Amino acid sequence: QLVESGGGLVQPGGSLRLSCRASGFSLDAFAIGWYRQAPGKEREGVSCINTPGTNSYYTAAVVGRFTISRDNAKNAVYLQMDSLKFEDTAVYYCAAADDCSSWSPTYYDYWGQGTQVTVSS
Known about the structure:
Helices cover about 0% and strands about 45% of the residues. It contains no helices and eleven strands. The strands form two sheets. Strands 2, 4, 5, 6, 9, 10 and 11 form a seven-stranded mixed sheet that branches. The chain starts with a strand and ends with a strand.
């Protein structure tokens, strides 16, 4: 089971740090992706990090603002979100897969329940 935390309400331009932790298995065997889903929209891939943490990928909308990282010793993956915009408002999910070769949500085997991020003034 994956568990996200760190969501909340933040003003535009602010920052949040999301965490993804695993219960019952080790994250270091998986690539971890972050996805988000806004009301009325499809779930979209935001970022992915490979198993050793040497490669990371971002969707164009968050490049330069979001940073994914992992600490395999703590069995955790993080998404640092800076310069947040209104359009970043969504439920954010972490998910596990064999690698980061696909943005399709169906490629990911395990999902968390999500954490709400709301950017509002």
